[in-house]
Specification:
Elements (H helix, E strand, L loop, with lengths): L10 H21 L15 E5 L2 E4 L4 E5 L1 H4 L8 H13 L10 H13 L6 E5 L2 H16 L3 E5 L8 H6 L15 E4 L14 H19 L4 E6 L15 H12 L2 E5 L23 E4 L11 E5 L1 H6 L15 H16 L2 H23 L3 E7 L2 E9 L4 E2 L8 H13 L1 E6 L2 E4 L7 H19 L4
Parallel strand pairs: 3-14, 5-6, 5-7, 7-8, 8-9
Antiparallel strand pairs: 1-2, 2-3, 4-10, 9-10, 11-12, 12-13, 12-15, 14-15
Helix pairs in contact: 3-10, 4-10, 7-8, 11-13, 12-13
Length: 459
């Protein structure tokens, strides 16, 4: 064990943690029902401890956490300022009904509103990203008096009823009965273009023309909102081509459609800016957030609301709420997180690491591994697209599934000491926003070795 990074004071403490972990695993398999999983086929990894950019598995092996768990530990694990803030808040006020004012919620709202673009200065707090999306859509429907919502096929918006129907990936299929008022469209993705584009400019233009056709065919007067992740996360980290988001904004304005930016995964520093839509200079009507707002230390999400939509509910009650809206422990964690990110230059670090270390390092790996079809990303938000054939771009795992090849590659990552985020045929390199250059270099070296396994599956 590396004594500079291990949270265990001694090998005896580590042995005790392993024993505790074994007991936890037994209880998990006996009683815990896991999400998105066939329960009998699960062999979940036990986590004994976390610190900074690292986690320790049930055997005591230290792994670089380049998954940031669910791409949410933007300030890393166990940040002392946030841990202390949670403890201080717990000693002062653990919980209070959302109707009452409390200083943690008020300050969190102020800090978030300071960082949102334009006039998105009202903050409605939720428990996480899915219910933030649910409430944003509800606000848009009530504001416009319309029902329909458009989202991309390659997207993820959450696991609750409306959000899962909005989601584009295959997790929607068992939950979609065509009654949620959602229609889907193709967004820009040049590597797997649906529009036969030759370059990013064509991809942007043709994707916008496609969206305009979908709006026309669905009836613009029926559409409440277009909801999109400015940089889709789970679906593949496709950075939009120049002009695309501006085109969506113009289309929404032309037809009175609410533009909702889902920043649940890409927000709060992940792309090297406070919000990923800041890269485009666009201001949406609503922003949904969660995850990085407090690094997931206590569940929290929310909706940032424009002045126009907020005015809809000035004298008309908003028909929605949550018992834990603006929970003091969660919002105290958000205050500490945002202040730490500001004081420590964590957003700037994410931008610099992406531009100078992670991005160039992944590009170099792409040049030397035929299994890498493409790398793409921004900040500390990158995807490595793995293929069986670089010419045909056949993926190493099918859309909506996995493969023995991907299992071997991910096993090689873990054996080397790296925990990435994976989806279908992709490895996502998404470390904390305060990751160091040395940690990224170490992660790239492990990935380099693991990609030699992927190369053996290339035809």
């Amino acid at each position: 064990m590396d004594n500079d990074n291990t949270p265990f004071p001694s090998e005896a403490a580590l042995d005790a943690a392993r024993e505790s972990g074994r007991r936890a695993y037994e209880l998990d398999r006996e009683h815990v029902f896991h999400s998105w999983s066939a329960q009998a086929q699960l062999k979940p990894m036990t986590i004994l401890a976390t610190a900074g950019s690292y986690v320790w598995d049930g055997d005591g092996n230290r792994l670089l956490d380049f998954s940031s768990q669910m791409v949410n530990t933007n300030i890393g694990h166990q940040h002392p300022k946030v841990v202390a803030a949670i403890a201080e808040q717990a000693n002062k006020l653990c919980t209070v009904a959302p109707a009452h004012v409390n200083d943690a919620r008020s300050e969190a709202a102020r800090l978030i509103a300071e960082r949102t673009p334009g006039d998105l200065d009202k903050i409605f707090f939720t428990n996480g990203g899915a219910d933030a999306v649910e409430h944003a859509v509800r606000m848009a429907r009530l504001h416009t008096g319309r029902r329909k919502v458009l989202t991309r096929f390659r997207s993820y918006h959450g696991g609750t009823d409306t959000a899962i129907n909005m989601t584009g990936d295959p997790r929607r299929w068992p939950n979609d009965y065509g009654a949620a008022g959602v229609a889907h469209f193709f967004g820009p993705f040049l590597y797997r273009t649906e529009f036969h584009s030759a370059d990013q400019q064509q991809e942007s233009e043709r994707a916008l023309a496609h969206l305009e056709s979908v709006v026309a065919m669905e009836g613009p007067q029926t559409i409440a909102a277009i909801v999109l992740e400015p940089v889709p996360g789970t679906a593949g980290i496709m950075v939009p081509p120049p002009g695309y988001l501006a085109g969506v904004r113009a289309l929404c304005d032309r037809h009175g459609i609410v533009m909702i930016a889902d920043e649940v995964m890409a927000g709060f520093g992940r792309t090297g800016k406070w919000f990923s839509i800041n890269h485009s200079g666009m201001t949406p009507d609503l922003i949904t957030f969660a995850k990085g707002v407090n690094s997931g230390y206590v569940p929290l999400g929310g909706v940032a609301i424009s002045a126009q939509i907020a005015a809809t509910f000035a004298d008309r009650p908003y028909p929605g709420g949550l018992t834990y809206s603006g929970h003091p422990l969660a919002t105290a964690a958000a205050v500490a997180t945002i202040n730490a990110m500001t004081e420590e230059g964590i957003v700037e670090n994410a931008a610099q690491i992406g531009a100078e270390v992670l991005g160039p390092g992944l590009e170099k790996l792409a040049e030397s591994h035929p299994s890498v079809g493409e790398v793409r990303g921004v900040g500390v938000f990158w995807a490595v697209e793995l293929v069986k054939n670089p010419q045909t771009r056949e993926p190493l795992a099918p859309y909506g599934g996995s493969s023995a090849a991907m299992t071997e590659v991910l096993g090689a990552c873990k054996k080397g000491g790296l925990l990435p985020f994976a989806n279908f045929n992709r490895i996502h390199m998404v470390p904390p926003c305060n990751v160091s250059a040395d940690e990224v270099t170490a992660g790239l070296e492990i990935l380099d070795s693991a990609l030699t396994v992927a190369d053996t599956f290339v035809a």
